[in-house]
Amino acid sequence: MSTISIIGAGDMATAAAARIAKAGHTVEILSRDPAKARALADKLSAGAITGTYATAPTGDIVILAVPYGSAAAVVADYGDALDGKVIIDITNPVAPDLSGLVTPHGSSGAQEIAKGLPATAHVVKAFNAVFGHVLAKNGRLDAFIAADDAEAKARVSTFIESLGLRPLDVGGLHMASTLEALGLIADLRMSDSFAGRLAGTGRVRKCGVVRRRS
Ligand SMILES: NC(=O)c1ccc[n+]([C@@H]2O[C@H](COP(=O)([O-])OP(=O)(O)OC[C@H]3O[C@@H](n4cnc5c(N)ncnc54)[C@H](OP(=O)(O)O)[C@@H]3O)[C@@H](O)[C@H]2O)c1
Predict the structure, then answer these.
(1) CA within 20 to 30 Å of 172's CA: 112, 137, 201, 205, which one?
(2) What structural domains does the chain harbor?
(3) Is pLDDT above 90 for 214?
(4) How many Å apart are CA 135 and CA 58, to the nearest integer?
């Protein structure tokens, strides 16, 4: 078992932290708001810890659980403190109106985030297409991963397996854009506007599942 650091203390950090703690890892919560980090750590059953935002995380694996729009700033805040770390990028770089992705053509959120990291850090795209409330249910879900560094990918695969999930390697970091598109579709599927559009086609969405109207 190891220490896994999470930057962020929002919904996804909460869901991931609960599952990681349940698997027996030590979770370190890092938030720009120390009170929020402490509150989340206190909610976890196993001995979770908090760290100081923008200083070196304890874990070798660091989950970046902040909005994509804040990721570059957060990575800049940490700078060399992320030297040698495996960064799991869970962000979905989607436009607020879910009209598409906000990343430059031919790139991905993960590749853009990697540009701001120290050269010794390695980005692995994972968990972006899994909803927090689904992750929290402890089912054996498929977890797609994309990364260029073989060792970082292997470490994240082992970590994902330790959570009771099935890691599915989809290729190099260039495949992150495909996973991010999947995240967009997942977000769209949960949105009210999508339900409205489906209603016009004779289908209705119920509990997140598309069913044909009888
Ligand atoms: N929620 C899901 O089901 C889900 C599923 C898959 C992927 N994701 C991805 O996971 C990431 C987090 O989503 P979420 O739902 O957990 O969001 P959230 O509940 O809004 O939490 C975001 C966290 O990021 C922190 N943050 C925001 N801007 C920051 C900044 N400039 N510097 C430092 N910290 C900052 C927030 O801190 P404060 O509380 O101090 O504002 C908060 O702790 C997103 O990229 C999202 O696309 C989410």
Answers:
(1) 137
(2) 3-212 (3.40.50.720)
(3) no
(4) 24
